[in-house]
Write a structure and sequence with these properties.
This protein has 436 residues and is mainly beta. Helices cover 4% and strands 55% of the residues. It has a single domain (6-435), classed as Outer membrane protein transport protein (OMPP1/FadL/TodX) (Porin). The strands form two sheets. A 14-stranded antiparallel β-barrel has the order 1-5-6-8-9-10-11-14-15-18-19-20-21-25. Strands 3-2-24-23 form a four-stranded antiparallel beta sheet.
Length: 436
């Protein structure tokens, strides 16, 4: 790694402060992915914390308490977003300009949120009528965005990729047939790469480039309870803690020329810290007919934990994010057409944690509605196939966060962002469940 002088370190800090460790998600508020089982996709995530089986472990570790059998599941969801991020009137004011001027480059970015496949799986083993252990493997905060090199949004977002793997070992206990308790440890690995362009002092010069990379292992926990007061009512309440992530990696800056004092390449070790949100979910499943079960859930998500990205030495700075806590509400149904075939559906409203005045192109997020249909086919008493499809409609939102390269230095270059985002997404999921 290169040794840097105090002057260059000061400018490096100001430069890195313009980098945002944000995220863009096609189908859940902020950068959270909900598609952790196919059955959940098919009913728009309604009632998951009150349902039972290994496929509900992510939502409630008590889901395996008192189960009649051991179980396992695998699931994969294809997430297919379609979006446009448009410039309205974004301005840049370089040190050589008395007044801001319009940003140059491609004024409409098509589909910057990348398509992908989200896998998940889990297993639950019944020790006896009261005790069970389980393991769920999910990827709850994973995404990728890619803007063109000449996009109008390039100074706040270029390429972004975050991959998380969450491993949740769980123990559950049913003190009676009416009560289930569960506790899990969330062991989460994160691997992030984020980049953005940096403006040189003169508009005639090519842009520089900044890339932040980091990875790390961190820990959280989950706890839940389920109540089964009658044969027709199932209730669930669960809490998933925030996880404080510490990513160890590097910041690389290239392509800057005088008078910016980082003309040579810079590659320094850096540590970034941020927190994922906590989640509190209440759910109910009520069997209103022999064949029909109604589902409902309400979630409060603690996105205020994602208040800033804190960068350690030699940067020693914090990047404000100013997310807000959010609500999510869902309702759905399951209908048994026959002993082999079940149909389901649901609707969910999911609130964005981003706020007007703080929304940028790296997180082009908005409130959304999810509309879902699904099915299950029981191949045998021990094996079931699941399918689900969902349409997500995003609200139109502004891209309006003001940033600045080299903030706090004589070369400070404000970017007065003014854009709009529109979009929707299709999600298709297939899964299988086994009892043993």
């Amino acid at each position: 790694m290169k040794t840097i002088t105090f002057r260059r370190a000061a400018l490096l800090t100001a430069t890195a402060s313009a980098t945002l460790l944000g995220a863009a998600s096609a189908n859940a508020a902020g950068f959270y992915l909900q598609e952790q089982s196919t059955k959940a996709v098919g009913r728009a995530f309604s009632g998951e914390a009150a349902d039972q089986g290994a496929e509900s472990l992510w939502w409630n570790p008590a889901a395996i308490a008192g189960n009649a059998t051991s179980s396992a599941y695998v699931s994969a969801a294809a997430i297919l977003p379609s979006s446009k991020v448009r410039n309205v009137n974004t301005l840049i004011r370089r040190p050589t300009n008395a007044t801001p001027v319009p940003i140059t480059g491609n004024q409409v970015s098509e589909d910057p949120i990348k398509k992908g496949v989200l896998p998940s799986g889990g297993v639950a083993y019944k020790l006896n009528d009261q005790w069970a252990v389980g393991l769920a493997i999910t990827s709850p905060f994973s995404f990728a965005t890619n803007y063109e090199a000449n996009s109008w949004a390039r100074y706040t977002a270029d390429k972004t990729k975050l991959t998380t793997i969450d491993i949740q070992p769980t123990i559950a206990f049913a003190p009676s047939p009416m009560i289930g308790l569960g506790f899990g440890i969330n062991i989460e690995h994160s691997d992030a790469t984020l980049s953005n362009a940096l403006p040189n002092v003169s508009a005639t010069l090519p842009d520089g480039q900044q890339t932040l990379k980091g990875k790390g292992w961190d820990f959280g926990w989950s706890a839940g309870v389920q109540l089964h007061p009658t044969d027709t009512i199932d209730l669930g309440l669960s809490y998933k803690s925030s996880i404080k992530h510490k990513l160890k990696g590097s910041v690389v800056i290239t392509g800057l020329v005088a008078p910016i004092p980082t003309a040579n390449n810079i590659n320094v070790n850096a540590v970034a810290r941020f927190r994922t949100p906590w989640q509190l979910t209440g759910a109910a499943r009520v069997k209103v007919m022999d064949a029909l079960t109604l589902n409902g859930s309400v979630s409060r998500v603690g996105w205020k934990k994602f208040d800033a990205i804190r960068l350690g030495a030699p940067l020693n700075t914090a990047i404000p994010e100013n997310y807000r806590n959010t609500w999510s509400v869902a309702g759905g149904w399951d209908y048994d057409v026959s002993p082999q075939l079940a149909l389901r559906g649901g609707i969910q409203w999911d609130q964005t944690p981003t706020q007007d005045g703080n929304r940028d192109a790296r997180v082009p997020d908005g409130n959304r509605w999810n509309f879902a249909l699904g099915t299950s086919y029981k191949v045998s008493d021990a094996f079931t196939l699941d399918g689900g499809a969902m349409y997500t409609r995003f609200a139109k939102e502004s891209i309006d966060r003001v940033t600045a390269a080299y903030a706090g230095t004589p070369l400070q270059t404000p970017i007065l962002t003014n854009g709009r985002v529109t979009g929707h997404a299709l999600i298709f999921s297939l899964g299988a469940r086994a009892a043993f």
